Amino acid sequence: MGTFFRRLPKVDYCAPENLQEVLSLISGKQKKEFLLYAGGTDLIPKIKKRLIEPPEMLIDLKGIPDLNYINYDPGKGLKIGALTTVRSVATSPIVKKHFPIFSQAAASIASTQIQNRATVVGNICNAVPSADSAPALLALQASLLCVSLKGERIIPLEKFFIGPGQTILKEDEMVREIQIPEMVSRSRGIYFKLSPRKRMDLALVGVAVIMGMKEGICEDLRIGLGAVAPTPLRAKKAEAILCKEKLTLGHIERTAEAAADESRPIDDHRASAYYRKAMVRILVKRGIQTISQMSQSFS
Amino acid sequence: MKEIEITVNEKNYHIKVNPWETLLEVLREKLYLTGTKEGCGLGECGACTVIMEGVAVNSCLIPAMEANGKRILTIEGLTGQEGLHPIQEAFITHGGLQCGFCTSGMILASKHLLDENPNPNEEEIREGLAGNFCRCTGYSKIIESVSAAAKQMKGGA
What we know:
The complex is a heterodimer of chains A (299) and B (157).
Chain A: E1 12-14, H1 19-25, E2 34-37, H2 43-48, E3 57-60, E4 70-73, E5 77-81, H3 86-91, H4 93-98, H5 100-107, H6 112-117, H7 120-126, H8 133-139, E6 143-148, E7 151-156, H9 157-160, E8 161-163, E9 166-167, E10 174-181, E11 187-194, E12 205-214, E13 217-226, E14 233-234, H10 236-242, H11 249-262, H12 273-298
Parallel strand pairs in A: 1-3, 2-3
Antiparallel strand pairs in A: 4-5, 5-10, 6-7, 6-10, 8-9, 11-12, 12-13, 13-14
Chain B: E1 2-8, E2 11-17, H1 23-30, E3 49-52, E4 55-58, E5 71-73, H2 86-93, H3 103-116, H4 122-128, H5 140-156
């Protein structure tokens, strides 16, 4: 880390009152450097640490109406607006009931104070490999509704991350909504966040497992991994091993092993690559076994 | 400089701020409400915790311009006509502070916790205060103070 100042560099600030205005500002027609923010819990520290060039103007998105919502359509799925805070997702009875893995993931982020400001869309767009909402949303097969002056497009979250802190979002685009399809019936999910402290740390390893079982056979398995590759990812080769197979210890262990192989962690001051791979193996196995027990006690 | 109107501890202020100033700076350096402290400046320690529009937030991460038209509660605003707030009393009675630097943030975070959950168990208190760090006390007496405050506030209600 370079020099850190507790004061922001000189930037300008505006709070447009509608989406069109924001999209116009970032469309490239203005000769200004803009950065969008909602909660600012990632952006402000980044600017203070001088990790990025300060923008000429900060665009505060919170003036845009109708972007703060959690809409559940039974049978169809969940829609989360761009301004929905992590806290509202973590405490929403609807999310807890129908997408508990998402609720768990949101609740694991930082502290109450941060959750009160941070947005889930912001967590995704900041795109750090360890983003806590990402493994769960990948396992839930979420998509992002993105808008620009040119129109809208839907990007599957799987395609969204292209590198540490990098997404395929264009400069004139903004994520407006997260769309999560209804969970397959009888499937259950769990998110493990491995970190030295109970709260406030980044995930060393983030493992999200969603599995549906019937009579001891895995019907459906999705594994999302965080902090163990340049981007959050799905462990699809691992999923293929267990899917449609009997849940034996042997199959589960091979699945966990494969997930560890698919991960490409780095050594850094938080943990070694070796340790992270080992933890992927342990947590994927634990996730599958936990869900298996949960499913049995409810069948 | 831009003009904003901000209500802090039930008092209205018309002040001029720069767009690059944070709410923490403005509270401390323009309004001279120095009870709110800066620990890390990055939203990791909670010393700068204030309650904005009923919600506990890290003021070091909030551009002051955002506070325009908003209601903010700082530690100075917790003492009412009848004297210290029960949470403040509890911290004194139960020794929930040593150097006191984290205390403003701890007390406001506790207030937000108790507003949402008037009867938290130890686990819930620890979770609720996870964003507030203390280097002196080892947290035990802070948790005792919050528990005691919760009992006191329920009894009084």
